Amino acid sequence: MSDKANAVVLLSGGLDSATVLATAQQRGFNCYSVAFDYGQRHRSELHAAANIAAAAGVVRHQVISIDMRGIGGSALTDPSIAVPEQGGEGIPVTYVPARNTVFLSLALGVAEVVAADHIFIGVNAVDYSGYPDCRPAFIDAFSALANLATKAGVEGRVQHIEAPLLNLSKEQIIALGVSLGVDYAQTVSCYQADDAGRACGRCDSCQLRREGFAKAGVADPTRYR
Fold this sequence. Notes:
Elements: E1 6-10, H1 15-26, E2 30-37, H2 44-56, E3 60-65, H3 99-113, E4 118-120, H4 136-148, H5 151-154, E5 160-162, H6 170-179, H7 204-216
Parallel strand pairs: 1-2, 1-4, 2-3, 4-5
Helix pairs in contact: 1-6, 6-7
C-alpha cells in the first residue's frame, strides 16, 4: 500500500474506532478522521475522538454535525428513553435508526473531496449489541451503493468500505489494538458517560468492553464513575 494513499476513518472515540484508526495507519494510509455530533447523550466521546486523532497525527480530524434527535427512537438520542442496563430480546433501544447508513454516506462525500478510495468503519458482528447496520450484509450492500452513487465510482475508482473488525471478538480487537499501541485509556465507549468521559460500568457497551479486557488478559484502563 502506497503511503500516499488516503483513507477516511470514522472515529467515534470508542474502543473499536480507535483500533480501526491504528489499523488503517499501520497499513500505510494517510488518514482523515471524521466524528459525528449527532445529538448523542454521550457527548464526551467527541472529545475522546479529538484526542485520539491528535495523538495519532492524522492528516485532518473533523466533526460533522447532524441532529438525529429529530428522528428519535433511540436511548442515545432521546433523553426520555432510558439506557438499558440489562440484556433483552431483539434489537436494543440503543440502536440509532439508520445511523451507520447516514455516517457512511457523509464519509463517502468526504472521501470524494479528499480523493480517498478507502473508508474505514469499526462495525463488529461478533461481540456487539445486535444492530442491523453492523452486519456483513450491510457492509457489502453499502459497498455496492458507494460505487454506483459517486463520481469516483462512475469514473472507475473503486470505493472500498473497510470493516477490519467485522469478524473479531472484543477480546481479539483489544489484543490487536494493544499490538498496535492503542491507548485505550483515551477511549470512551459508555452509552451514558459523563462530561468527563467516565463510564457507568453497567450499560451493554460497558459490559462488552469490560469482558473484552478480562478475556484478553489486559488491565482495564476505563475510568468509571
